[in-house]
Amino acid sequence: MTQTPSPESLVRTRESLHQVAEHVLAAARKRQTGHFTLRPSPGGFCTPPLQDGRVIAVDHTDITVTDAGGVRRAPLTTVRAAADLVGITAGFPTTHGWATPLEPDATLTVDQAAADTVAAWFALGQRALESLVADLADEHPTEPSLFPEHFDLGVTVAEVNYGASPGDDRIPEPYVYVAPFAGPPGPDEYWNAPFGAHLTRARVATSDDALAFFREGHRRLSTGA
Questions:
Q1: Measured at the alpha carbon of residue 192, what is the angle toward residues 186 and 194, in degrees to the nearest 5?
Q2: pLDDT tens figures, 74-94
Q3: Domain count of the chain?
Q4: 189 domain-assigned
Q5: What Rg, from alpha-carbon coordinates, does the chain have?
């Protein structure tokens, strides 16, 4: 039976995973390809295949490197140790826009139940966003990507961001969101945040719930209702 992490454990784990996403996975991809977005994967999140064929991933409480020779794995203890397994110097190559400090030797706090919660939330968001992209194909949406600087999963459709976040400084629990570039049309029961609308995981049990929320945002913005 999956345990429910405490709110404090979820926040600490999310902050630790955010550091690894920025200063190890995104850093490795940026150095090889010039790109830095990530993607959800079973157990957490990963890079797309790098130019050398490797895939770097966070798998629950571990860092993994998969290549033709198999999988190398180590527990997440510090950013430096994770970077050493990958074979890079810890730290994103530039400092502009990055949300977490580079503290390579600080102890990472990664609780199993909290890491499972983050992984499950990204998986739920991926399913919902893939369905939304299929729904709105005529509007040329972007593909779902995990943005390490924000540590959330999102797509853009007609100057509106739709996404799933495991939490942040403003909203500490996992939530889905709709964020128009121009801001929300006005505060009401749906547009409940300065950036647009959000719905926390207490009201999002399945990817269908998340998809219904995204569709409602799209309907309101399309019709002015």
A1: 70
A2: 999 999 999 999 999 999 887
A3: 2
A4: yes
A5: 18
